[in-house]
Amino acid sequence: MTRARVTAVAVASLGAMGMLATACDTGGPSGGGAGAPLDAGGFVFDFGSGPDDAGELDAAVPPPPLPDPAACAATCETLSACAAADAPDGLCDAIDAREREAFAGLCAQVCGAAPGFPEAFAGVGDCPAQLERMRAVSSTLAYACVPSPPPETPACAVFADRTAACTGEACDDVVPVQAGLAYWLRLSCDQSVAAGQLAVDDLARLPGEQTPCDDPVAQSIVGGLVGDATRQGTLTHLCTFGPALDEGTCAAACEHLRPCLPARNPLRVESYCRFVCALDDSLRDPLTCAAAAPECAPLSTCFGG
Fold it and tell me: 84-112, pLDDT tens digit by residue?
């Protein structure tokens, strides 16, 4: 890995609107379970070291045929059974018997859009080998296997804090939400390590505690985050036009949302919630509504529930 890049889903596909609308538990703090795996894959810094679910195709060459649904069903039945098994630890800890059916459905979606997906597992033996192959073939399924919160990797926290600090130097509007940016970068890094999408060697190349902000790798990461008029990054809108909502509205919205979200939803972390609030202009109306709706039941109407 020579440089990290930022995922193209950045702001437009934060997953935040869907995450808020579907995860808001109007029954209060006692209801709801763990957040869906989209917490991992819906809005994650892309370190550029893992597989894409669909490779780039040559426009001049006819695309290969999509897999037969029956072949996808058979492949995904095997994968979901392996994912839901108690062992092997570390390869799919987020999935158990209760999540098996949902995982199989996600797998079928991935398979149906990925030519050669069933064939990639032909001749692969036991469950560990099946899941290792799956992590190499599909980042979507690899991230779905990561528990929330993911296991912590100390180097990820160091990378996140240093990168957030350097980004704050490059963009003044980041400073008020710098802690939330650091949380997102650390969470993304922990998730990517747990999903097998970020190798130890790649992790060692990321900025560390003593890395100067003018280091080429640090500059590349910060530049990708901030972007510019011709190259949109996760923070481009924030750094160009300022926060989507003022700090007071974000603080109130996040305070009201916290008890209404499942216990392991990352938006319960105040710094991260305020970061998302400042970042995503598409959430202006629902979060303004949430700021004025202190009870969980009215909050559902803020997100179309």
Answer: 997 777 899 999 999 999 999 999 999 99
* Amino acid at residue number 135: R
Q: What is the DSSP string of the chain?
A: -------TTTTTT-SHHHHHHHH--TT-TTS--SPPTHHHHSS----S-S--SS----TTSPPPPPPPHHHHHHHHHHHHHHHHSS-STTTSTT--TTTHHHHHHHHHHHHHTSTTTGGGGTT--SHHHHHHHHHHH-HHHHHHTS-SSPPP-HHHHHHHHHHHHHHHHH-GGGGGGHHHHHHHHHHHHHHHHHTT-S-HHHHHTS--TT--TTSHHHHHHHHHHH--SSS--TTHHHHHH--SS-HHHHHHHHHHHGGGS-TT-GGGSHHHHHHHHHH-GGGHHHHHHHHT--SHHHHHHHTT-
CA distance 212 to 175: 18
Summarize pLDDT for 7-53 with one digit per residue, the tens: 323 332 344 444 454 445 434 333 322 233 334 335 788 787 556 56
